[in-house]
User: Fold this.
Amino acid sequence: MQTRPQPQPQVDLTKTTAIQCDSCGHNVFSPGLLLRKVSKFVSQDGRDGVLPVQTFHCVKCGHVNQDFYPPELVIKDTNEK
Assistant:
């Protein structure tokens, strides 16, 4: 049985905003993986493991914008109000 590709929503690209690297200003990104260790005490199968988390990094300098991290991994600025 073949699966059909899901239709992509139609978005007017002129109504979108470009994203740039927070470090160098470049605007081309590549997919990457953050790897997180999972303790056997919190894993579903009771074994230590590795959890891949997809993100994007700048192809020029390798930086990962903070917006690309899952919300649970974002480091909060202690000076924020």
